[in-house]
């Protein structure tokens, strides 16, 4: 189903985004690759042997989306449409709420929430006009419950659920679909690239992340979710059971989650 589809991926320079680009390239999709680092996007393009006619490198920073309309227009000018938007870009946090400045809280929200909303709102009019489209949003199991060192990160992911669940209902009759993806522990650089209370890079691989599901396996599950027209999917190992435990047994969940090791 992905052959010749125009698919825009943010956070495409590494991790889940790069794995998605690789899987979709094999399916014959036409890819728009976005992230902050042009050199890394070029590396992904070269690794996947993407032809210029079937791909577009579109670097931008989710913390600064004032030119997002112009970037979206570049996609439309080249390909004429956007079939799937995969909003995968963002970053995590490793700091206690009491130690984290409001400035850092705002920075995390700006990228993870407002950046995602900005690109969605720029693409949405084209999907509504073509009466088709799929918006895929990368949340986290932290979008379902909070955890140590994740106060602003969890807040940004919770906010995505509120926005996109509302949007899904509003555009259902326009044949534009919304999938919210909630990964658990996936082996990527997310903990390495997380920021601390001062805004510096954490630069440490969490032990549980290092033992997590591969980005390639995660990408496979996401593409399966799109094909199945799922509204929300949870991807990972036994950690995703926590979502169900919290829903059915909140008191038990509270006891169990507090015993987990902060990392």
What order do the helices and strands come in, and which of them pair?
Elements: E1 6-10, H1 15-26, E2 30-34, H2 38-47, E3 55-57, H3 68-79, E4 84-87, H4 102-130, E5 133-138, H5 151-171, E6 176-183, E7 186-187, H6 190-193, H7 207-210, E8 213-214, H8 215-227, E9 232-235, H9 241-248, H10 250-258
Parallel strand pairs: 1-2, 1-4, 2-3, 4-5, 5-6, 6-9, 7-8
Helix pairs in contact: 1-8, 4-5, 9-10
Sum this structure up briefly.
The protein has 263 residues and is an alpha/beta fold.
Low-confidence stretches: none
Q: How much strand?
A: 5-15%
Mean pLDDT, all residues: 96
What value does the Rg take, in angstroms? 18 Å
Count every helix, treating DSSP H or I runs of 4 or more residues as helices: 10
Please, could you describe this protein's structure?
It is a single chain. α4 (102-130) packs parallel to α5 and α9 packs across α10 (250-258). The model has no long low-confidence stretch (mean pLDDT 96). The protein has a single domain, classed as Rossmann fold (3-Layer(aba) Sandwich). The chain is 46% helix and 15% strand. The protein has ten helices and nine strands. The chain is of the alpha/beta class. Strands 3-2-1-4-5-6-9 form a seven-stranded parallel beta sheet, sandwiched between helices. The chain has a two-stranded parallel ribbon with strand order 7-8.
């Amino acid at each position: 189903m992905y052959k010749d589809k125009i698919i825009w991926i943010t956070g495409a320079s590494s991790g889940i985004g790069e794995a998605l680009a690789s899987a979709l390239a094999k399916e014959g999709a036409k890819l728009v690759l976005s992230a902050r680092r042009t050199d890394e996007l070029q590396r992904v393009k070269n690794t996947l042997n993407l032809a210029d006619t079937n791909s577009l490198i579109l670097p931008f920073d989710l913390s600064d989306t004032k030119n997002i309309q112009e970037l979206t227009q570049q996609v439309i000018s080249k390909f004429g449409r956007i079939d799937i938007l995969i909003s995968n870009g963002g970053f995590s946090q490793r700091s206690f709420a009491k130690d984290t400045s409001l400035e850092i809280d705002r920075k995390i929200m700006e990228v993870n929430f407002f950046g995602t909303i900005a690109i969605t709102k720029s693409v949405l009019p084209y999907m509504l006009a073509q009466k088709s489209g799929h918006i895929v949003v990368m949340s986290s199991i932290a979008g379902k419950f909070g955890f140590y060192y994740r106060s602003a990160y969890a807040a940004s992911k919770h906010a995505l659920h509120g926005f996109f669940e509302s949007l899904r209902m509003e555009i259902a009759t326009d044949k534009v679909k919304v999938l919210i993806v909630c990964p658990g522990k996936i082996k990527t650089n997310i903990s390495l690239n997380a920021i601390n209370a001062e805004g510096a890079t954490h630069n440490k691989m969490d032990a549980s992340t290092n033992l997590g599901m591969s980005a390639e396996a995660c990408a496979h599950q996401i593409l399966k979710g799109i094909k199945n027209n799922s509204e929300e999917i949870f991807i990972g190992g036994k950690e995703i059971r926590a979502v169900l435990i919290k829903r059915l047994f909140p008191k038990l969940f509270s006891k169990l989650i507090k015993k987990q090791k902060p990392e």
